[in-house]
Design brief:
Largest sheet: none
Mean pLDDT: 90
Number of domains: 1
Keywords: Membrane, Transmembrane, Transmembrane helix
Strand content: under 5%
Transmembrane segments: 12-29
């Protein structure tokens, strides 16, 4: 049971990291996009 718990924790951490990474990436990309539009 402990092993399954550890695996779930690792997957959860990876998921959060990817979510934050994509959010930051998308946010900076949007800023660049709006700069090109002249906003």
């Amino acid at each position: 049971m402990q092993i399954i718990n550890n695996i779930l924790n690792v997957y959860f951490l990876i998921y959060i990291t990817i979510a934050i990474f994509t959010y930051v990436l998308g946010y900076t990309y949007q800023i660049e996009f709006f700069k090109k539009l002249g906003i």
